[in-house]
Target: Large-conductance mechanosensitive channel
Amino acid sequence: MGMIKEFKDFAMRGNVVDMAVGIVIGGAFGKIVSSFVADVLMPPIGILLGGADFSSLSLTLQEAVVEGGEVVKEAVSINYGTFINTVIDFIIVAFAIFMVIKGMNAAKKKEEEAPPAPPEPTKEEVLLTEIRDLLRK
Model:
């Protein structure tokens, strides 16, 4: 029973929960970026490169063996087009994270540079100022 309570205490600590949320959101963000690269970014790049679709680029090392209309041995190929898509995914994700962190650092720096507001005058100072102003009149 003590081990279950200890595990529950561990799993419910703030850092663990925050990390879990970050991992889930990061996974979803990764899917969004992968879709962006595959469905939005790569088609125009493929057109610019003469209609090439990177995901289908591959180097065949061994052809498939077909006997009697049946595949006896599958083809062996290096799918470097998929690798190119994955590298582009990584670069976009890394750049997006860089921009977010750069923005956060800039906001934090501005917050640190902002001078603190002058302290409010005490009641005594306000009263003395009023007395001074009345004496001037």
